[in-house]
Design goal:
By secondary structure, the chain is of the alpha/beta class. It contains 15 helices and ten strands. 42% of the residues lie in helices and 16% in strands. GO terms for molecular function: methyltransferase activity.
């Protein structure tokens, strides 16, 4: 069975033809909620143009989140919901009828169901929209909304319990099942262990050491409790923007590598620690959907009192979070890695999620 077929088998007997339509529906519902919020707390509905900084001041945004209203306004302008005059001055924010705002909740819930997400996602998105003012003012924590009372159920809804992640995880497991060597495995930014849980049973008897790393002690402690039955696991706090340790046959990063300040540098570091014939396996979002605008920007903002991490790769000088598929593939080549898997393929309905399994092998340096 190919990785793609394994992924489809994990999704099951589901009609995927309407996935693009429902991804779009979820995007517009969330963006409508953001537009309504900005209209209620700023003068953007009026005719006098404002720059993003003026909007942030009207809303009372704390310094570390000051970039977020401008990021939202760019998305709103791209959808024609606000007028944008050069250089980035905004006005004429669209007004919404009450019926349209009531429909936001229905749109989120119906799209959520069609896309295979569990109910926790609806609660999370609606809570995030409800608390936008508090999030921008640091009165509410994005982490507290994503992990209420330390519970991983909401994060699981976003990163595991849905059609696209079932597909990607099963495809990734099939890729790993076919690898000739998985003696030492390193997972970077392992977080909730969304893929780890599916990989570990396949690695029993094949892996001497699996190093599960993350910057947060919260995730490491959760993993110790969850994966205690696997004696070959080790847990280590690691910032992958720094030097990486050891030599590994397989390096994994799930929705984590984009957090590097320079993804090209990260890829070269990974290539430097791969054993001959070693493999890099990434699961990455390759396009920022509007549905993530109430969550991901807050999770990416600097810690209170710290400067926001500057991007030094393709995203330098922008507020982009993610790299495109092409940029990842170019980064692989520059690091001496040969792409071998890129799923789902363009044109497949699942590609509308913009999440991809990207796998590359270390090139034979004797031939380069």
């Amino acid at each position: 069975m190919s990785p793609h077929d394994a992924g489809l088998a994990a999704v099951g007997d589901v009609d995927l033809t309407r996935v693009p339509e429902n991804v779009r529906r979820l995007d517009i519902a969330v963006l409508t909620g953001i537009a309504a919020f900005l209209g209620s707390v700023s003068s953007l509905r009026e005719g006098t143009p404002l720059d993003a900084g003026e909007v942030a001041r009207q809303v009372g945004v704390v310094p570390r989140h000051a970039w977020i209203p401008g990021h939202w306004l760019d998305a709103l302008a791209g959808e024609g919901l606000v007028h944008a005059d050069p250089p980035r001055r905004f006005h004429g924010l669209r007004r919404f009828r009450r019926s349209e705002l009531v429909a936001v909740r229905d749109g989120i819930e119906e799209a959520r169901q069609a896309l295979g997400y569990p109910p926790e996602l609806t609660r999370y998105l609606l809570d995030s929209l409800r608390h936008l003012r508090g999030l921008l003012r640091d009165e509410v924590s994005a982490q507290a909304l994503l992990f209420p009372d330390g519970d991983l159920a909401t994060a699981s809804a976003a990163y595991r319990a849905n059609h696209i992640n079932r597909y990607l995880n099963a495809a990734a497991v099939e890729v790993v099942r076919r690898l000739p060597e998985t003696g030492r495995v390193l997972e970077l930014g392992a977080g909730t262990g969304s893929l780890t849980a599916d990989l570990l049973p396949v690695l029993v008897g094949r892996t001497r050491e699996y190093l599960f790393t993350d910057l947060s002690p919260f995730f490491l402690e959760s993993a110790r409790e969850r994966f205690g039955a696997y004696p070959f696991l080790r847990y280590e706090r690691l910032d992958f923007n720094e030097e990486l340790p050891g030599t590994f046959d397989l390096v994994i990063a799930v929705n984590a590598a984009h957090n590097a300040s320079h993804t090209g540098v990260l890829l070269k570091r990974i290539a430097g620690l791969l054993a001959p014939g070693g493999t890099l396996l990434l699961i990455e979002t390759c396009h920022e959907h509007h549905q993530s605008l109430t969550s991901m920007p807050f999770l990416l903002s600097a810690r209170p009192g710290a400067a926001r991490v500057e991007r030094h790769d393709h995203r330098a000088g922008t507020t982009r979070t993610y790299l495109t598929r092409r940029e990842w593939r170019d980064g692989f080549a520059a690091a001496g890695l040969r792409p071998v898997v890129d799923l789902p393929e363009s044109g497949h309905p699942l590609a509308a999620y913009s999440q991809h399994l990207l796998v590359a092998h270390l090139m034979d340096r004797r031939r380069t």
